[in-house]
Design goal:
The complex is a heterotrimer of chains A (277), B (350) and C (283). Chain A has 277 residues and is mainly alpha-helical. Chain A is 78% helix and 0% strand. Chain A is globular. Chain C is an all-alpha fold and 283 residues long. Helices cover 71% and strands 0% of the residues of chain C. The chains are: A mainly alpha (277), B alpha+beta (350), C mainly alpha (283).
Chain lengths: 277, 350, 283
């Protein structure tokens, strides 16, 4: 009967949203409370909710000499990293998607290697090498080291996108009289660009939030926003309200971009990009 | 066991689409009923509602004197055979067939015996240890059949089980299915869109369109004396001819008149003449129409005839008769009595 | 329409991407491995560093702790990802809003995950404030010996990743197979255990191994939330490198972590290779 199905559907929906409430809404709510509590009154146990709210943490953050420059730096670095990663990745992805060749499997495994080898190993070893080369504490060094992390994923996302275009479509266009250029621009590109856009957005997010490599190479002179956040959490003293505000500044645009990227890509492209082997 | 099914006012509403619009159906115990109709007519939705996989929006389903529409599928004791076979790929043939018995917590020795018997019934006892992927499509469907009957179900439900098989295999498996159903005497419902399959199989056929039942009857009744145009055009080929009706006599467009065997006044769509009932005689001059095309099919010859402003189809037996050429004038010989067709609010074109 | 291509043209295409990785990943990796076989005095090939690594309980505890901090979150995530994936199969509306929301931890950096655990699970955090009036004592979850807080933060980040893969594997199962099991008498739980999980197996294995590999070198979360002893190899690497300058030891630890990851990866390929000889899901 209809009601039996409806109740079981509702139960499942309830279960799923209860999971979300616990793991997402609840933590976010607490971050918001920390970002908006009133330091003059304080927020100490046993208070579950702060007694009064204020914007003072935001004012402090905006006044802090380090934070806005860090945000700006993150923005610039991420844009550059995304652009360069895309430019480096595309020819490789094109070769992998279009042409069979011997050693292809070897190339694929090599591209996967930076994902398998623990990131900390890459970060620390590059940190030491760049130190000897005088590249630590430079924006250039941070960009170079981040690309090592973003390049494998971008190659895999672009390859998966290109492979997702059925070769028959290009073939059909050619038999209908389209030149190779037209076949690419009118057929392949419109089909590929959502995957490319998703890849670009995900790379931007990965770069903006990247910590370990940027920390090992950049700190303390060059600080991305993520590294700046570390200074409020990893030191002797925890500065929770500032950390909360910086978290919100860091995450909000990332979530918007992520939702956009998610709408643009199919799940299997995302899975390929995120490391499904 | 008297496992008669009764379906009362069953409806199913999907978002923005009414798949079933109030189905009333009685299926006597032990009979094979075929649900026939074009895709989208609701036959599969109806079958899945009966099996419990889909929950109907409203209505009742009764098994003899027990109401079952609120009973979850695992407790209904119905056997299902699917178009895609749906064997468990990670289990052997034996384990596949044993699964339903395991769910019923039957003792191991009895399971072994019954599985063996079921596999022998479908001729696959030699393959008990194989995996489904090692079997052909026909063999997989036989395993699915064994799996469905070994649990001694009250009702057997078939969801287009032969559609994935090639033509010759389809025929032989269809015969086996029917023989098995008759032998075991299990109430069965069989869904198909293939009208020749429906006619070969069913004790009775229920023709469906647009979520409704159009007509129900034996294959002969539905073929020779359909009430509705939809049924006539869905089951085999037919010519639907506008005729002038005077009481119980109909006058055909080329002049001949005949008695009507089923006079009616409302919603009349025309007169049905099956191509095999339309005689054609070559004439040198005059006549009723001209042959425009012919196709030699071996056992029969199909003709297209332009007559009275329409194209009619006629079929004659092959044998050694000469094939009439295009352009040949012919005289049309209708059958002794004519059959009227009515319009049904549901079915559009078949 | 896959034509061949001349080797020179192929090289040109592959050069930017593969070349970059060769220079900025391949060379450092080789240097790491090579550098671990040099002693602290720098006098040619030596196993001293490796000997001191394996002999020193700090580093062996560190290795064990790195493995613990990879295994525990993987198991915890699996325990949640499987029911979550199963529920998502049952509910079609999970496709839209829920389908996007549950993936959010994928784009939350580890440092923020650590921050969330701090404000909820630390002493004085939200959970202790909620439990206190109820009189329930809270165990220590941050900077505790077992690293529970670190495990929770890691698991929180890994659950969407695992769910993405496992739900995808389950969705690939022919629905009729599940319906057949139901009509044969199996309840929903039996269908999950006897049909869905076995048929989603390659996906589950992939998810487990990838999660493990991704967690074995984590730095930020143990750094924020972990105890002061033992420290996982990732943190020891940082300390020995940038604070003590004992680079051969750092390279040895790095090589060790990489070897662990590669061994697990080979195990993965071996398992899916043997599973691949069986049938993929569906009919």
């Amino acid at each position: 009967m209809a009601s039996r199905a409806k109740t079981s559907q509702r139960l499942v929906g309830f279960g799923l949203y209860a999971y979300l409430a616990l793991t997402l809404f609840f933590p976010v709510a607490i971050v918001l409370l920390w970002a908006f509590y009133d330091p003059a009154v304080g927020w100490f146990p046993p208070d579950i909710v702060p007694r009064s709210l204020s914007l003072s943490a935001w004012r402090e953050v905006l006044a802090d000499r380090n934070i806005l420059p860090a945000a700006g730096l993150s923005l610039v670095v991420s844009v550059v990293v995304t652009a360069v990663t895309g430019a480096l990745a595309f020819p490789t992805a094109w070769a992998l998607a279009q042409f069979p060749f011997r050693l292809k499997r070897l190339v694929e495994i090599f591209i996967l290697a930076p994902v398998i080898v623990p990131g900390i190993v890459v970060a620390i070893s590059l940190g030491e090498i760049f130190f000897r080369l005088g590249l630590t504490g430079t924006v250039f060094g941070v960009i170079l080291v981040q690309i090592v992390g973003t390049l494998p994923f971008m190659i895999r996302i672009l390859t998966a996108t290109l492979e997702g275009i059925p070769a028959e479509l290009i073939h059909a266009a050619r038999t209908l009289g389209a030149s190779p250029t037209v076949a690419v621009t009118r057929i392949a590109l419109p089909l590929a660009w959502p995957g490319f856009a998703a890849g670009g957005l995900l790379t931007f997010i990965a770069s903006f939030e990247e910590f370990e490599k940027s920390f090992m190479v950049g700190a303390p002179k060059v600080r991305t926003l993520a590294v700046q956040l570390w200074s409020y959490l990893g030191g002797e003293v925890l500065i929770l309200p500032t950390a909360a505000v910086v978290t919100l500044i860091l995450l909000t645009p990332m979530l918007v971009i992520f939702i956009l990227a998610e709408r643009l890509s199919k799940d299997d492209v995302m899975a390929a990009g995120l490391g499904k082997l | 066991m008297d496992a008669s099914l009764s379906i009362r006012q069953l409806t199913k509403q999907f978002e923005g689409h009414r798949a079933l619009k109030g189905i009333d159906l009685e299926i006597p115990a032990g009979r094979l009923l075929v649900l026939l109709g074009p895709s989208g007519c609701g036959k599969t939705t109806l079958l899945r509602s009966i099996s419990g996989i889909t929950d109907p929006t409203s209505g009742e389903i009764w098994l003899k004197d027990r109401r079952i529409d609120a009973v979850p599928p695992e407790k209904r004791n119905f056997g299902l055979v699917f178009q895609t076979y749906a064997l468990f790929p990670h289990m052997t043939v034996e384990k596949n067939v044993a699964f339903g018995l395991e769910m019923r917590r039957i003792a191991k020795p009895e399971i072994t015996a019954r599985v063996k018997a079921a596999l022998e019934l479908v001729g696959l006892d030699q393959h008990a240890a194989r995996l489904p992927k090692q079997l052909s499509g026909g063999q997989q469907q036989r395993v699915a059949l064994a799996r469905a009957i070994v649990i001694e179900p009250d009702v057997l439900l078939f969801d287009e089980p032969l559609s994935n098989l090639d033509a010759k295999l389809r025929d032989s498996l269809r015969e086996d299915l029917r023989a098995l159903q008759l032998k075991l005497g299990i109430t069965s419902i069989y869904v198909t869109h293939d009208q020749s399959e429906a006619m070969a199989l069913g004790d009775e056929i229920v023709v469906m369109a647009d979520g409704e039942i159009v007509e129900r009857g034996t294959p002969i009744d539905l073929y020779r004396r359909p009430i509705y145009r939809f049924t006539a055009e869905f089951l085999g080929m037919t010519n639907v001819i506008e005729a002038q009706v005077y009481g119980d006599v109909a006058k055909l467009p080329w002049g001949e008149a005949r008695r009507i065997e089923n006079p009616a006044t409302q919603n009349v769509e025309g007169v049905a003449i099956r191509p095999e009932d339309l005689g054609i005689e070559p004439v040198d001059a005059d006549g009723h129409g001209t042959i425009t095309q012919s196709v030699f099919m071996g056992a029969s010859i199909h003709y297209w005839i332009a007559a009275a402003g329409k194209t009619l189809r006629a079929v004659t037996t092959g044998g050694s008769a000469p094939i009439l050429p295009n352009g040949q004038r012919v005289r049309l010989v209708p059958p002794p009595s004519l059959h009227l067709l009515r319009a049904h609010k549901a079915g559009g074109r078949p | 329409m896959k034509r061949g291509i001349g080797p020179l043209a192929l090289l040109v295409l592959l050069l930017p991407g593969v070349g970059y990785l060769l220079v900025f990943f391949g060379i450092p990796l080789v240097r790491v491995i090579y550098g671990s076989f040099v002693s602290r005095t720098g006098a040619g090939f030596s196993l001293d560093t490796w000997v001191s690594l394996f002999a020193n309980p700090v580093y062996m505890d560190g290795l064990r702790y790195s493995l613990w901090l990879a295994v525990a979150p993987t198991v915890a995530s699996l325990v949640i990802a499987i029911p979550l994936s199963a529920l998502m199969q049952a509910n079609e509306t999970s496709r839209n809003v829920f389908g996007t929301l549950y993936k959010i931890p994928l784009v939350v950096p580890g440092i923020v995950a650590g921050f969330l655990v701090l404000i909820i699970l630390d002493r004085g955090g939200m959970l202790s404030r909620i439990l206190q009036p109820l009189g329930i004592p809270m165990p220590r979850l941050v900077r505790d010996d077992l690293g529970v807080g670190a495990i929770i933060a890691s698991a929180w980040k890994n659950i969407p990743f695992m769910t993405l893969i496992i739900a995808g594997a389950m969705a690939a199962i022919n629905k009729d197979v599940l319906h057949a099991a139901r009509t044969l008498g199996a309840g929903r739980l039996t269908v999950l255990l006897r049909i869905q999980l076995p048929l989603a197996q390659p996906g589950i294995t992939a998810a487990v191994l990838l999660t493990f590999i991704g967690s074995v070198g984590s730095y930020v979360i143990p750094s924020l939330l972990g105890p002061s002893y033992p420290k996982p190899l990732s943190i020891l690497m940082f300390e020995q490198g940038f604070q003590a300058g004992n680079w051969p030891l750092v390279y040895a630890m790095g090589t060790l972590l990489s070897v662990v990851a590669i061994v697990v990866l080979l195990a993965y390929y071996a398992i899916i290779g043997s599973l691949g000889r069986q049938k993929p899901v569906g009919t």
